[in-house]
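Quick one - inputs below.
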Amino acid sequence: MEKSRKKLNVIITAAFLIALYALTILLDAVIAPTSRMYMLITVIQKSAVYALVAVSMNLLNGFTGLFSLGQAGFMLIGAYTYAIFSIPSENTASVYQYYDAVVTFSFQEAINGLFGLEATAAPGLILGALLAMLLAGAVAALFAWLIGLPVLRLKSDYLAIATLGFAEIIKAIFQWAKLGPLTNGSNVLRGYTRLSDFTFEIGGTSVSFATFVPVFVASMCILLIVLLINSSYGRAFKAIREDEVAAEAMGIKLFKHKQMAFCISCFFAGVGGALLAMFMNTIQAAQFKSSMTYEILLIVVLGGLGSVTGSCIASFLFIACSEWWLRGLDSGSFLGIESTIFRSGFRLVVFSVIIMLVVLFFRKGLMGQKELPDLFRRRRKPAAAPASAEGGASK
Amino acid sequence: MSGVILSIKDLQVSYGGIEAVKGVSFDVHEGEIVTLIGANGAGKSSTLRSIVGLVRPRAGQIVFDGEDITGQDTTNIVKKGITLVPEGRRIFPDLTVLENLKVGAYMRRDRLDEDIEWVYSLFPRLRERSWQAGGTLSGGEQQMLAVGRALMSRPKLLMMDEPSLGLAPIIVRDIFSIINEIRKRGVTILLIEQNANMALQTADTGYVLETGRITISGTGAELLSNEAVQAAYLGT
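Output:
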C-alpha cells in the first residue's frame, strides 16, 4: 500500500508539472506583449524565481531552524557568475567599457563552437545557460561553505546578523573597482543570455520558451529540495531544528549537517540569482539589497515556515500583488475607482495592511507546516481514526 | 552474568573550573541493569553525557566492549552501540512519532521495518499514535517514544537519564516494567534516577554518587537495605 501510494504521488506530480509546462508555453504563445494580460507572464516568470529562492531559504530557516538572512548575497553571487560566463565575446568590449575583461567568452558560444555550430545556435544556448547556472549555484555554495565555517557556530539572532553582514560585504566586494575586470565594478552587466533569447524555430514557427525556462528550472530545483527534505538527511535537518541536544545524542553531527543545509540552500539561491539575472536583462550588485532578502523572508513566513508548497503559493501571490494587482493603487485608479488618495506609495500601505491581516489570521502562514496534498488527505482521515482511538484521548 | 561491557576508570568531568565528576570508577556487566543514584548535582548526568561523548572528560578512561572510547565523538559512539535517552525526554515535537523513530536510526543505513515493528510491539500505544506529532503525546507516551527512539539505533548499552522525571507513579511503574522487558531482549541498561526506590528494585547493581564520587556500591537489594541509603534517598 505504501508503494502504490508512492507511485501515485509520482504520477500526480509528473502530471501536474507537465500541465504546468504546457500552460507556460501556451501562455507565451497566446498573450501578446501589448496585451494587458502580459503582466501575468512577467508575474509567472518572477514568481518562479522567487519561489525557488524562497524554498531554498525555507530549507534553511523552516526545516533546519537556521535563521539566515544572507539570501540576497548568494543570489548576487549566482547572478554575477551566470552573467560573466554568458556574455558572448562580441559583447564583451561594450559591456566592460572601463576594464579589460578577464572572461571574454560565453559557455553558450564555446559549446556551439565545440560542435561546429554558429555562436547563437539553440543547443549551445541551452546547454551553456544550464552550465552557467550550475556554476552559479556551485560558486554560491563555495562561498557559503567558507562563510559557514565561522558563522554556523552562532545561533538564532546572532546567525541572522552575521549572515546579513556577509551579504552586505559580498555586495561591496562585487562593486570593488579592483575586481572590475571580472565584475565590471559598479557598472551593470548586460548582453548575456536572457529569458527572451529562448525563442526557437520549431517547424517553421517561432516558439517562445521565455516563461517555460524559469518555471522548469525552478520546479526541478524545488523537486530536488523536496526529495532532500523527505530523505534521512531531511529528517536530520528537522531533528536539529526541533532539539539540537537530542539530535546530537542520536549521533547526528550538528555542524556537518548545518554546513550541508547552508551550502545546499545557497546553491539553489545562486541558481535563483542566475534566473533573476536572465529575467531582469541587466544586473548590478546594488540591486541585491537586503530588502530583497526581506521580501523573500516575507514570502517564506507568509507561506508557512516549513512548507514548500506554501512558499510557492505565497511567492506567486506576493509578486502578483506587488507587481500587478495593486499597481492601480499607485496610479490613480484601482478596480475602476478613481481617487486622489491612490497615488505613489499608497500601494505599500495597502500591502502592509494585507500582510498584517494574513499574519493575524494565519499565525503560522498560509500553510503552516503542511503541504498542499495534506489539505486533501485530511478529509479522509477522520473516517479511519475511531478504530484506533480507544487508547486514550485522541487529539 | 557474563563479561564487562562498559568499564569506567577514574572519570573526571569539569565545566570551566567546576568539577562535576571527581574520579568515578565502575563496571557494567553485559545484560545487567545498573543504576547510579544520587542527589541533584552529584554528577550522574555528567557521567552519562561523557560516556556518550556529549561532554569531553578531563581525565579517566571509558572502555566499551574492549575498546577505549574516551573522547570520541557521539556519532562514533552511537555507531558502536551506546545510546542515551536524554533527561526530560527531548523528543522532536513537530515530527511525527514515526519520524522520531526514524531519526533514532539515523546512523544506520539498513532496513528499519523490523525495528519499527519491535518498538511498536514494546509500546503498542506508539503504533496508534504513529502519524501524530510527537509534541501532542502525553508525558508517559513521550517517554516511551524517547526510549523507542533510542532503541532504533540497536544499542548494546542503553543509558537513561531520569526516565521517571515528571511522570505519574503508575506510569513510572510501566516504564520500569518496560526497562525489564528491554533487558530480556539482551540490551544492557545503565540508568540514573532520583527515584531511588524504584530504580534499586529493578537494578542488578547500584552505585551511590555523592558530589562527584561513588560512596556506596552493591546489588540493588543490598542498597535497598543499606541504612545510609535508606536515610538519604529512600526517605524511610
